[in-house]
Each structure stands twice: as structure tokens, then as C-alpha cells.
Amino acid sequence: MSDTAMSHPTKAVVTVTLKNGVLDPQGKAVGHALQTLGFSGVGEVRIGRVIELELAETDPERARQTAEDMARKLLANTVIESFRVEIKS
Amino acid sequence: MSDTAMSHPTKAVVTVTLKNGVLDPQGKAVGHALQTLGFSGVGEVRIGRVIELELAETDPERARQTAEDMARKLLANTVIESFRVEIKS
Predict the structure, then answer these.
(1) Half-sphere exposure in the Cβ direction for A21 (13 Å, CA)
(2) For chain A, which terminal residue's Cβ has fewer other Cβ atoms within 10 angstroms, N or C?
(3) Matching Pfam families, A to Z (chains A, B) (predicted)?
(4) What is the model's pTM?
């Protein structure tokens, strides 16, 4: 759907992060790089994704359910990742 | 610094997103994939990164400045990306 068709889109923000206990090599690499750059006092680093979606759905609750459905079907690998959805009008 | 040395780490969450106007091919691909999966009413999709950091720094304001410094030096490409920092005790 083109942007023009969406006069007042609902904005959904889906944050996807690795589940606790799942190894995060990318996070480890960033942690080491930060220490190499001279930052001390850096503990665990975890990297995730944030997906900002414009939805034509204007009802916040239905928009939330749609975004959760999108997360389960595509945006997150629910075997190793968890997600949370925020709806912004 | 090992996790044990951090009894009460401060958690900083750095969210990195593309600046407005910067093309997001990944977002476009996700948008098409969502439509292919049968989701209608999907407008613009933007993908970003979220970096969760454990910092030994206990003062929230100094932790914020450190995280911002990390973002400018490593976590974000400030030419095409913007970032925001949230401090969680």
C-alpha cells in the first residue's frame, strides 16, 4: 500500500532480542571492540533488531495483534528470539 | 570486565536507526515479505539495531554520556544513522 493511501498510519515498533542463555557472538565482538577503543567497565553486550512498521490499522489493539502476528510469522525467530511490541499513535 | 566484577551494572540501551531520507532496502524487503505472507495495510518498514550494554558506571548521567560516546565511536554510523540512549537502572 503506498504511503499516500495511509493518511493516519499507526506506528508499531517491534523489538527483537535473543532469549536469555542464547550465545550472542555479535554482542561479544562489540564488547571486545569497545574495550579495544579504550572503554572500560563494559559487561555483557546484547544486540537485537528494532523494526518500525507503519500500519493502516487505526485501532491500537488490533494494530498490536497484527504486529505480534507479523513478529511470530516473519520478524522474529521465536526459537531463539523473543519480541515485544510498542504501539505509537 | 567479567560479569562477577559488576555487582550492580547499569543497563544502557542504544537504539540505532537510519536517518530519515536514507533508503532502507532491508525494510523494503521485509515490507514485501509481509505482503506476500498476506498482511495488508503495511506502509513503510524501517529496520534498526538495539544494543543492550551492561556498564559498571553507577551514575546514570555518566553512564548516558559513556553510551553516547560508544555510539558515536562504534555503534552507529553517524553519517547515515541516528541513535538514542535509554538508561535503565
Answers:
(1) 3
(2) C
(3) PurS (PF02700)
(4) 0.89
